[in-house]
Amino acid sequence: MTSARRRSAGSESPAARIRGLRKAYGTHLVFDGLDLDVARGERVAVLGASGCGKSTLLRCIAGLERSDAGTIATAGEIGVMFQEPRLFPWLDVGRNVAFPARNGTERVRVPNVLALVGLAHAATRLPKELSGGMAQRAALARALVRDPHLLLLDEPFAALDALRRIELRAAVHEILTLTRASAILVTHDVDDALAIADRVIVLAGSPAEVAFTGNVGETATRAAILDALGVVEGGAYSRVRG
Amino acid sequence: MGKLVVPLALFAAWWAATASGAIKSYQLASPRDVVRELFELAQTGLLWRDLGASIERVALGFAIALFLALIVGSLVGGSRIAERALDPTLQAIRAVPSLAWVPLILLWLGIGETAKVTLVAIGAFFPIYVALVSGIHGVDRKLVEVGTIYGLSRTALITRVLVPATLPQLLVGARIGLTQAWLFLVAAELLAATSGLGFLLTDGQQTSRTDEILVAILLFAACGKLSETGMRQLEKRLVGWTDTVPV
């Protein structure tokens, strides 16, 4: 085991710095020497085909998977949000949000983060009484309660219908702007990436490598990202239009 | 109102059959006789003695079963090594119809209280044990990950995530275990007892008193129903947060 994780709070250090990440499941090598930096306040979207290792990357940063080699350094607290809300069904919304809180300072943040995600009125409700969109908002509030420097978002909108998706995407964007937290958004949706991220990277290959990186508003256009993903957009329709 | 129709009809048929003399009292006592016997037993204090003895055996046997099932179930559910070592044996023991243990228990422990409580405990143990192990195995790994992400210690992970996540299954197991406890109590008291509701049954049989037998049966029904209702109330209070209707 040569992997190393450390958390530092130095103001100069980036929100996340990954060097030489190596991760294998059995004989399948997911990463072999992946490097990635996320600057303070930067929002990076990670795109790639299913099974390319996007989620594995996030799970390694979150400490849910052990890397086989390389270093992952993160500055300050991490908040995580998954595709599913993962709320504890026996706790009401307020207690779910308070779950990561370790002290009074963090606990008093609960009403604030609930208000931030628009759930101030729902603190005493049980998860089974929430709609999908509300449950995901509660999960977002829980991810925020420790005032994280880095938010890890693993397909957080994927299970929502189109309207809830747009709403929550706007909410996440607003909250990230407000809190100036860095974020890594793993998604398969180019629109999610463009709506939230400052920078888009595309993972491809096996082992996965950064096949494309570009800033939103500069080189990371929809067409460039789709191209990097190997998607031929439009198909027959665009050919007919010529 | 609808659910009272069948019991009332049965009661009316019972009353009519015994009052008309179509069925003799040594075959089936009339409702009147049963009520009179109930009051008589209550007045002489025998009712409370027998009821108390039975409840005590069930409570003690159930408590022992719950205690042991919590320990063994947590071990087997929480450790692969313990599971491989213990579970096959326990499953084999469980496969034996539990009443088959009766002769052995009587030989080992005699006909005293210990034998009866032991039999009740055997009956109550397995439903609780099985439910707890499957509850622990069924804990949503994704919820455990949330605890891991926020750096919960092993103890905190157990008390804040695993225990509440397992509780619904455990309570269902406990409810079934309590029903089993009453079942096994009858077996234990039918075999050898000088007190208890099962003793009322055998005493009634030996003296051809169907009123006494019916009183015992009614009391068993009442006790079983009460403990079942009590456990369901407990489930409602403790795990009302579940999204599914417990079976």
Q: Which segments of chain B are poorly predicted (pLDDT under 50) over 5 or more consecutive residues?
A: none
Determine the fraction of residues in helical runs of chain A and give it as a percent range: 25-40%
Placed side by side, the strands forming the largest sheet of chain A appear as 6-7-8-4-9-10
Whole-number mean pLDDT of chain A: 89
Shape of chain B: elongated
Indicate the percent of residues in helices of chain B.
over 70%
Distance between the termini of chain B: 24 Å
- Poorly predicted regions of chain A are 236-242
Overall, the morphology of chain A is globular
Percentage of residues in DSSP E strands of chain B: under 5%
SSE order of chain B: HHHHHHHHHH
Q: Give the radius of gyration of chain B.
A: 22 Å
Number of helices of chain A: 9
Largest sheet of chain B: none
Number of strands of chain B: 0
Number of helices of chain B: 10
Quaternary structure annotation? heterodimer
Report the biggest beta sheet of chain A as strand number plus sense, adding barrel if it closes. 6 strands, mixed
Structural summary, described in words:
The complex is a heterodimer of chains A (242) and B (247). Chain A is of the alpha/beta class and 242 residues long. Helices cover 32% and strands 27% of the residues of chain A. Chain A has helices spanning 54-62, 93-98, 104-107, 110-116, 132-144, 162-179, 190-196, 222-229, 236-241, and strands at residues 4-8, 16-25, 28-38, 43-48, 69-75, 78-81, 150-154, 182-186, 199-204, 209-215. In chain A, the strands form two sheets. A six-stranded mixed beta sheet of chain A has the order 6-7-8-4-9-10, sandwiched between helices. Helices cover 80% and strands 0% of the residues of chain B. Chain B contains ten helices and no strands. Chain B has helices spanning 5-19, 31-44, 46-78, 80-95, 102-109, 113-137, 141-149, 154-191, 197-206, 210-238. The longest helix of chain B has 38 residues, at 154-191. The radius of gyration of chain B is 22 Å and the shape is elongated. The A-B interface holds A 62-64, 78, 80, 82, 84, 86, 88-91, 99-100, 126-128, 146 and B 142-143, 145-146, 148-150, 160-161, 164-165, 167, 239, 241-243.
